[in-house]
Write a structure and sequence with these properties.
globular, 9 strands, Rossmann fold, single chain, 7-stranded mixed beta sheet, alpha/beta
């Protein structure tokens, strides 16, 4: 029997050694490659929120880590911003860095924080949920998020949203879109938009295209060994990735952003 994955311990150790975008991103690829990845994430996140209109109100970022998305919410002009993280190390550092924000410590896949029921106008949960490897906790996370949102509140998260079957690893699970969509429906969410976050610069877990997989294998072999070269490659790829994302439809070979609204209770 496989030993149960201890997510809190794993992320405590990982962030204690690498409390930066490198630590919360593709840790083998070096800092510079990850900085370019997060430039893409920031650009896409800001654009998506602006398009779906969260003009004011109270917002929560789940799995805040180093505070990247807290800064994005601040850049959008939001003032009542809350963060939440599983780890003590992140919570302590975030409270020191963002003294004007409220930072909560909690596991979104466990018990809900009752004081936060129907509190938020928008919730973000980026690159977090696929790290919940237990399916019951994963489903519970959607229920908890729904309970925290006001009716018709916005929920934006990233996931693999696979066309095919689940792909399971030690600390990450890429789940089928059929399964995820069912859980969203049960939690009271309507999916408003799905859009790829990357095309060439993340693992093509949702594609069997041989050329794309060969490309990723080669990129990994170089970038995991030579971090300076990885940074140069990422800088060269950045404009191409932006162009491809503009041309992309609702599907893609890797991580997608899913935008949802909580249905109004009657």
């Amino acid at each position: 029997m496989r030993e149960k994955f201890d997510a809190k311990n794993y992320w405590e150790k990982r962030l204690q050694g690498n409390y930066d975008l490198h630590g919360v991103g593709l840790i083998e690829w070096g800092e510079q490659f990850n900085l370019w990845l997060y430039r893409i994430r920031r650009r896409f996140f800001l654009k998506t929120i602006q398009q779906h209109g969260v003009e004011q109100g109270k917002v929560l970022d789940i799995g805040s880590g180093t505070g990247f998305y807290l800064e994005c919410w601040r850049d959008l002009g939001r003032e009542d911003i809350h963060g939440m993280d599983l780890t003590d190390v992140a919570v302590q550092k975030l409270r020191k860095k963002f003294v004007d924000m409220t930072i909560h410590c909690g596991d979104i896949g466990e018990h809900p924080i009752e004081a936060m029921d129907h509190t938020f106008d928008a919730i973000s949960c980026m690159d977090v949920l696929f790290h919940i490897v237990d399916d019951e906790h994963y489903a519970k996370a959607f229920q908890n998020i729904a309970s925290m949102l006001k009716d018709e509140g916005l929920f934006i998260f990233s996931d693999s949203w696979l066309k095919g079957d689940d792909i399971r690893g030690t600390h990450i699970v890429h789940r089928s879109r059929t399964f995820v969509a069912k859980l969203l429906e049960q939690a009271g969410f309507d999916v408003v938009e799905v859009h790829p976050m990357f095309i060439l610069m993340n693992a093509p877990v949702d594609s069997h295209h041989l050329i794309l997989r060969a490309w990723w294998w080669c990129l990994y072999q170089v970038s995991a060994r030579f971090h300076r070269v990885a940074g140069v490659l990422a800088a060269v790829l950045y404009p191409l990735e932006i162009m491809l994302l503009k041309l992309a439809g609702s599907d893609g070979p890797t991580t997608k952003v899913i935008v949802c609204r909580k249905r109004k209770a009657y």
